[in-house]
Fold:
Amino acid sequence: MSDATTFNGIGMTSARTRDRLIARLRSGGISNERVLERMRVVPRHLFVDEALASRAYEDTALPIGYGQTISQPYIVALMTQALIGERSDERPLGKVLEIGTGCGYQTAVLAPFARHIFSIERIQPLVERAKANLRALKIDNVSVRYGDGWRGWKSHGPFDGIIVAAAPESIPQAFYEQLADGGRLVIPAGGSRGQHLLCITRDGDAFHERDLGLVSFVPFVEGTG
Ligand code: SAH
Structure:
């Protein structure tokens, strides 16, 4: 086995394959070195079915069953960078709310940048899969819950960051209410006419919106699956 091969001993995890992905993220505008390093070390192939593992380091969304997808690496990096900002120090965000855990990949990327992540997923088998994936990576600062993310998770708020992996037609009021002062909400919003990834920063009672561009997410569905 070559020393370019990491654990699991499969060629698809070779350092070169991952480096190619990181180069692509960098040229796409991801500049936070800590985010890039995290993207390099999180084993995305462990989050997809074995049959798709050889494609895990392509910059593309892949199916994870139940009509859902694991997000495209570039989008995961972009959302992570938007949420944590340009902070180069080691100080993590406090509490983060994530809506749409899926298989837990975004959660795993974000974990070292937050003290605790509260994550909600509306499809029960995906909750179980995400928990198993996070456990396997020894990530222990995450609480995953089965439920409808529409109302947020009030008992643990306010949150320093809220990150949403599915696109609602319009932004649920609960997300504004549960965002701490100075906190950021990263969310794809808009329906069939096109979704925009928004980074919304709270300043007292004011909310400043930055448009990070056109994106394509699975729909935010109200209620549980
Ligand atoms: N974060 C995942 C992406 C998952 S895709 C990753 O890293 O790859 C988006 C997820 O949002 C799906 O699993 C879908 O079931 C979930 N979702 C959609 N509407 C939801 C809602 N109302 N509450 C909680 N989760 C929801």
Remarks:
- The two ends are 43 Å apart (CA to CA).
- Confidence is low (pLDDT under 50) at residues 1-11.
- Residues 167 and 189 are 5 Å apart (CA to CA).
- The chain has one domain: 3-215.
